[in-house]
């Protein structure tokens, strides 16, 4: 027999042997090999230790109302609408509360957009433009007035000469 | 009827569920409730999350009853659903948020074992330490290796069935198990 530790093809033989899943004939051949193969013996002993350690890990007992809770969920499922039953299997578990929140946010946003007047921000912008324009016009008028004053002042002086 | 006679009992039950037989679903639940919960529990290491996920597994089985076809072994299908939900849960980190209860669960388990085996306080403490080491060693495995070990060790599944659950080849399963047990031997061999 080719050594299971050294051969990739036979590597699972030792695992199967330690899991007691090997047929009696192959197990006997492997045991004969292990008698004079130290690496296989060490592997087998370590694997058996793992197997025993894993045996000590008992799972928790199931809560008594597991079935009742499941049947309640099935009943809720049955009573749920067609659309919800169609969409629900495609949604991951942790996404479902987020989806409800997102749906609520969309409703609030739509309600806000519907109620608020669309031209509301525009008057403020117009007012600013108007004020600037008025200010600029006033400046221009002041400048024109000053320009216009000069000839009026100079004209009499020329006439006097 | 000839085809139905060749079916495995679970697949037959599932076909009856498909026809609207609620009692057959109850039977399936009775048969597979504990293996599924224990598998998911050992995957996510949290009792409350494990039960929630196991409920989702059976709910999905019930939902899929109308489209069910016995193309594979029933338990392959069942554990495939369970594994996917457990892997998604681990990926989303939902278990980490409730990890504080882990130590309490260990103590509870030990407390429950007292009347049966009547260990001394010292034996009890040693047992707790060993159990914690086993859990840590399993938890340290990559999720797919962990699933393979749990199905191999606790569900006693053949390589071919584990391969179908994990959707990979048998040689990939052997490789996964070999690497996983190698890690476990390094961490747990001293417990012998």
Strand and helix layout:
The complex is a heterodimer of chains A (161) and B (192).
Chain A: H1 11-18, H2 24-36, H3 38-55, H4 66-79, H5 82-87, H6 95-115, H7 122-160
Chain B: H1 2-5, H2 9-18, H3 22-44, H4 47-63, H5 74-92, H6 94-97, H7 101-117, H8 121-140, H9 143-153, H10 159-166, H11 170-188
Question: What is the CA-CA span between the terminal residues of chain A?
Answer: 138 Å
Distance between the termini of chain B: 53 Å
**Element order of chain B: H for helix, E for strand:** HHHHHHHHHHH
Q: Which pair has the most extensive contact?
A: A-B, 35 and 51 residues
SS element count, helices of chain A: 7
Main sheet attributes: strand count, strand direction, barrel closure of chain B = none
Oligomeric nature of the chains:
heterodimer
Mean pLDDT metric of chain B: 85
Rg calc of chain A = 46 Å
What's the shape of chain A?
Answer: elongated
Please state the second-level CATH architecture of one domain in chain B. Answer: Orthogonal Bundle
Descriptive account of the structure:
The complex is a heterodimer of chains A (161) and B (192). By secondary structure, chain A is mainly alpha-helical. Among the domains of chain A are: 45 residues, no CATH class; 50 residues. Chain A contains seven helices and no strands. In chain A, helix 1 crosses helix 3. Chain A is elongated, with a radius of gyration of 46 Å. Chain A starts with 10 loop residues before the first helix and ends with a helix. Chain B is mostly helical and 192 residues long. Chain B has a domain of 92 residues: Rna Polymerase Sigma Factor, Chain: A. Chain B has eleven helices and no strands. At the A-B interface, helix 1, helix 3 and helix 4 of A face helix 3, helix 4, helix 5, helix 7 and helix 8 of B.
């Amino acid at each position: 027999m080719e050594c299971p530790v050294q051969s990739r093809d036979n590597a699972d033989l030792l695992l199967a042997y330690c899991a007691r899943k090997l047929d009696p004939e192959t197990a006997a051949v492997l045991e004969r090999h292990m008698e004079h193969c130290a690496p296989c013996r060490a592997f087998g002993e370590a694997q058996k230790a793992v197997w025993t350690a894993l045996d000590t890990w008992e799972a928790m007992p199931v809560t008594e109302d597991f079935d009742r809770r499941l049947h309640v969920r099935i009943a809720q499922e049955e009573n749920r609408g067609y659309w919800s039953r169609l969409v629900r299997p495609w949604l991951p578990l942790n996404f479902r509360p987020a989806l409800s929140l997102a749906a609520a946010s969309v409703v609030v946003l739509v309600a806000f957009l519907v109620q608020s007047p669309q031209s509301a921000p525009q008057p403020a912008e117009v007012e600013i433009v108007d004020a600037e324009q008025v200010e600029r016009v006033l400046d221009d008028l002041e400048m024109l007035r000053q320009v216009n004053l000069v000839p009026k002042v100079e004209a009499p002086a020329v006439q006097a000469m | 009827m000839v085809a139905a006679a060749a079916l495995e009992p679970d697949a037959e039950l599932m076909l009856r569920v498909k026809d609207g037989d609620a009692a057959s679903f109850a039977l399936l639940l009775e048969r597979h409730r504990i293996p599924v919960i224990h598998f998911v529990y050992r995957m996510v290491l949290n009792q409350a999350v494990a039960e929630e996920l196991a409920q989702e597994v059976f709910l999905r089985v019930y939902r899929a009853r109308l489209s069910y076809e016995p193309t594979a072994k029933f338990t392959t299908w069942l554990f495939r659903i369970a594994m996917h939900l457990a892997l998604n849960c681990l990926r989303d980190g939902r278990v980490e948020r409730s990890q504080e209860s882990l130590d309490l669960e260990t103590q509870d388990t030990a407390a429950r074992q007292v009347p049966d085996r009547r260990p001394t306080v010292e034996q009890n403490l040693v047992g707790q330490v060993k159990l914690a080491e086993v859990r840590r060693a399993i938890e340290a495995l990559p999720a797919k290796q962990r699933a393979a070990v749990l199905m191999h060790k606790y569900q006693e599944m053949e390589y071919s069935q584990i391969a179908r659950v994990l959707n990979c080849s048998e040689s990939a399963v052997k490789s996964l198990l070999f690497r996983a047990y190698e890690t476990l031997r390094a961490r747990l061999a001293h417990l012998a």
